[in-house]
Give the backbone structure.
Amino acid sequence: MSGIERRTFLKGSAAAATAPGALGAAREIIDTHVYLFRWPFRRLRDEETPRLVEMLRGKGAVQAWAGSFEGVFHKDLAAANARLAEECRRHGQGLLTPFGSVNPKLPDWEEDLRRCHEQLRMPGIRVHPGYHHYKLDDADFARLAEAAARRGLILQVEGWLEDERHHHPLMRVPTPDLAPLTGALARSPGLRVVVLNALRTATGAAKQLAGLRALTEVYFDFAMPDGLTDLNALIELVGRERVVFGSYAPMFYFESAELKIREAGLDETTAALIRAGNARRLMGPR
Amino acid sequence: MRIWDLHIHPEAGRIPGKTLTAKVETILEVAARVGIERIGVFFMLGKDEPEILRIMERFGDRIFGFVWLHLWQDPVEATIARLNRWVADGPMIGMKLGGDSGIYSVPAYDPVFRRAVELKAVMYLHTWMKIGGDPPWPGGGNLPQESRPQDVVAVASRYPEASFICGHTGGDWELGVRAVRAQRNVLVEIGGGYPAQGQVEMAVRELGAERIIYGSDVSGRGFASQLAKVHGAAMSDREKELIFSGNLHRIMRPILQAKGMVVK
């Protein structure tokens, strides 16, 4: 945060403090980072899709990009992705957009990718290098990125799902190093990428961000960066056009992302870009 | 709804501001932006002590001061002397022990807690249960001098008339809640972890809303993620009020009265 001057940080409006729902309801949000189905280690209040959709609608979300916890833990990803698409269709009320999971270390992952695109009509996929146990300089990941680029799909890279200090003792999942992502994506010009939950703090990841921001179509959510000034720092490091709203609901309380925008004291133009404008541009006409 | 934030670290380099005073001003301004009325500030002693006194004087209507103590690095007598200087004779109302402050249950440290209880000081005790070790177990990844909730329980059981705050709900809150559940004079503070859905609901279910206190752990965390744990929780407004300020006010009252401080 050394780059942010106090005067800059404090210039945002000291809007009258109200409960977070009051600020969310009237403003449009595209949430690029939600999950459906069950997290295996804990029941979540909003894990049932209709309830999640009701919550998101109540917060002003007009679109939510949904991954699947089944896609993190299952090996039959074709079935998991089909269930995700069906769940979004059946309960999404036009709000949920499915992002299927593809694991480039599984045999014939190309068919999973093809089905996500051609059969299930998904606009993108979500990968989980930590839980699928590969590094971002893995050649198979680079091939997946190239294949996604050829198909015009959005690639969401999920960096982290749970505090490493709290992992189940028999399932301790390393957090992947983000640094090789720049090199992997360099071979896929034009690929639209959203980096999710990859930055514990924006300031701590400045070097990694420096490489990624040179790529024109890389975006970042801010569910995870959690310091007092991290959203400001992220915007300063990557630019306000590269930050998208991500709540990581239902694992995280939606109100966290919502309140971060107020905490950061952003001007209305920047806030609107982050809430929905950037994600809308990223998704493009469908 | 009145919100007091128990847990603020003002010294961090990433908080905008060139001086400690400027950093506190920044924190107070952002706190107001998200609806926080007062903050508990954990002050590290050292070169800034004159400035700390000035800050307490200037912002006394919005700050509750806590002196950060260490159990294993300093002789017990010196630790008690700091407690006397900053709480008994100074502007602060409590003490904080951190993640490298010592194992609270070690009997040699008991005189520090005894003195804090005599002073009616508010006691914030950092805890965590990090997975680690071989084979891994909760707490096996802790720092050598980092306490677990069980250490808070051990101390609290010696002083049933006093209240103890188990910082971070033990970090791994699903375990921390269980660890302190039976020790009724232990409250949990919810700050310092990711805004995982269910943390506060579980604490209310198992401990009751009267044993939960909101704190953020700024600047390691922001206000937003930590406020969300209460704003987003499925519970009554009455329970949220207790967590946001009512419980802290209740356990502060004895020392506020003892020091003649009035907080409306």
